[in-house]
């Protein structure tokens, strides 16, 4: 029996802990955030054989949103497998997300168990699976979990396997991570910097050129396989457009050193709040942060050999989110989390206090963290179980979608704060006017031949200039539909 031996007992505990979120209540609907709608639209296009770029979303060149014309195909492909059998079923997609979280938790459990022992491995599972924003992402249809899983597999195979013999597997994992999230391209740069740093330590070795050739061959092989997978899926099998050019344009128009400094402060606050304050009292969170930082610093000191790849991955990822001209909370910072936990546990194993009193204090702090995680989960599950009003699935909003589908031409262009949501539900082209002046909104509407404007309760929050524009141009607009949630206007 599995439970008769010690090893099997700890594996069973880990399986139970990682699988418990499968029993958490699933949100029946999702909120107005539009990334999930874009992913689902692409998944529906895959199922129905419709081109990926035929998604109705129009990028506003005057003030373009943070989105290319289509996302990498990897996550929509996962969603399409569920869409084929369950259709537009939000709980089914969240179940898929939770299963990926289960795989992620077990992947890191086996890594922790082999390197740090069973007890710390279980503690690591609590940090990875039950941390506030990890659980929050469970009820969101986003690519973060799937990317985290394949990023983790790439890093772990690179560090702990014979990478020269597994170069093809590394290439496959790299390619899959890349098609899950465009940021996956960073992994090869991290590996390059790591290999370069190790090479610089052997510059006086007579075999340095042979060593350099070996490393170049390895990295080139990984990159070629990953690039082939990316091009095959994002260009040959499915055309997702030129996302690279889109992000180059973002940096050209929006990048600034001041924004980088703001981002640095912003993400520092987000990480501190998310993991040390969110479900704890402030004083306890501060003590936890101090303990975590102490073990984290010691963990970095104890990294040896290829484990140091983690340092370069963290540096590249942190530089990327700090340099990116926009902020998105813990979503952008989430990929660093399992790596940080690994380093912290490494420090905890090698630097655990020998003084009896310090041992007790450390155990109390970590025990308190686990307890607060459990309380936080209960609070979170209650929120999910309660009714959700901030959603495009309300009855009144659904009536608005139905009106648009039945009473507007297929090529009618809409101006709205949520173009990807509208395009998903109505299959009509739409764009976001962003925060522009009335004159600029007018010029954009003429340029895009937009004939309809849609307003809802969230418009003022996300595009505060749109409602004033409507009031200023009311004489040139007809109200064609109105209810408690939705107002649809048409240009006369």
Can you describe this structure?
- By secondary structure, the protein is mainly alpha-helical.
- It has a domain of 97 residues.
- It contains 22 helices and 5 strands.
- A 5-stranded mixed sheet has the order 2-1-3-5-4, with helices on both faces.
- The longest helix has 30 residues.
- The N and C termini lie far apart (75 Å).
- The relative contact order is 0.12.
Please give the radius of gyration in angstroms. 25 Å
**Total helical segments:** 22
Strand order of the largest sheet: 2-1-3-5-4
Described by the principal axes of the CA atoms, the overall outline is globular
Order of helices and strands: HHHHHHHHHHHHHHHHHHEHEHEHHEE
Q: State which percent range the strand residues make up.
A: under 5%
Main sheet specs: 5 strands, mixed
Low-confidence stretches: none
Average pLDDT metric: 91
How much helical structure, as a percent, in the residues? Answer: 55-70%
Tell me the number of strands: 5
Task: For the record, give the distance between the C-alpha atoms at the N and C termini, rounded to a whole number.
Answer: 75 Å
Which structural class best describes the helix and strand composition? mainly alpha
Would you kindly provide a brief summary of this structure?
Helix content is 66%, strand content 5%. With 492 residues, the chain is mainly α. The protein has a domain at 395-491.
């Amino acid at each position: 029996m599995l439970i008769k031996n010690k090893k099997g007992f700890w594996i069973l505990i880990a399986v139970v802990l990682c699988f418990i979120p499968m029993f958490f209540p699933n949100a029946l609907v999702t909120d107005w955030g539009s990334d999930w709608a874009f992913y689902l639209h692409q998944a529906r296009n895959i199922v129905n054989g419709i081109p990926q770029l035929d998604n109705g979303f129009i990028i506003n060149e005057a003030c373009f949103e943070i989105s290319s014309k289509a996302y990498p195909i990897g996550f929509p492909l996962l969603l399409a497998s569920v869409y084929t059998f369950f259709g537009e079923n939000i709980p089914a997609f969240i179940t898929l997300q939770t299963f990926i979280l289960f795989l992620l938790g077990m992947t890191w459990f086996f890594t922790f168990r082999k390197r740090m022992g069973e007890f710390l491995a279980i503690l690591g599972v609590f940090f990875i699976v039950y941390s506030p924003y990890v659980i929050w992402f469970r009820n969101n249809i986003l690519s973060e979990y799937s990317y985290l899983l394949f990023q983790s597999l790439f890093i772990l195979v690179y560090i702990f396997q014979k990478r020269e013999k597994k170069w093809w597997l590394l290439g496959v994992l790299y390619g899959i991570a890349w098609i899950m999230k465009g940021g996956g391209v960073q992994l090869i740069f991290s590996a390059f910097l790591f290999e370069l740093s190790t090479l610089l330590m052997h510059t006086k070795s007579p075999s340095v050129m042979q060593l350099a050739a070996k490393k170049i061959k390895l990295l080139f092989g990984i990159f070629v396989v990953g690039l082939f997978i990316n091009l095959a899926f994002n260009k040959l099998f499915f055309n997702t457009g030129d996302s690279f050019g889109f992000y180059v344009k973002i940096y050209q128009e929006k990048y600034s050193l001041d924004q980088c400094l703001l981002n640095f402060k912003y993400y520092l606050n987000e990480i501190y709040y998310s993991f040390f304050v969110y479900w704890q009292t402030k004083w306890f969170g501060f003590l936890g942060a101090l303990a975590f930082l102490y073990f984290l610093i010691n963990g970095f000191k104890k990294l040896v050999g290829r484990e140091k790849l983690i340092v370069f991955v963290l540096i590249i990822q942190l530089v990327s989110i700090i340099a990116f001209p926009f902020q998105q909370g813990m979503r952008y910072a989430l990929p660093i989390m399992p790596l940080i936990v690994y380093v912290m546990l490494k420090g905890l194993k090698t630097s655990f206090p020998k003084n009896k009193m310090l041992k007790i204090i450390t155990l109390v702090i970590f025990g308190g963290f686990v307890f607060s995680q459990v309380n936080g989960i209960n609070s979170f599950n209650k929120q999910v179980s309660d009714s959700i009003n901030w959603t495009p699935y309300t009855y009144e909003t659904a009536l608005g979608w139905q009106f648009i589908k039945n009473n507007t031409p297929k090529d009618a262009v809409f101006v709205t704060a949520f173009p990807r949501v509208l395009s998903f539900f109505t299959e009509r082209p739409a764009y976001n006017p962003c925060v522009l002046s009335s004159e600029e909104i007018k010029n954009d509407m003429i340029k895009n031949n937009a004939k309809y404007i849609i307003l809802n309760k969230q418009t003022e929050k996300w595009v505060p200039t749109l409602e004033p524009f409507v009031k200023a141009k009311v004489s040139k607009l007809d109200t064609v539909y109105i209810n408690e949630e939705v107002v649809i206007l048409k240009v006369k």
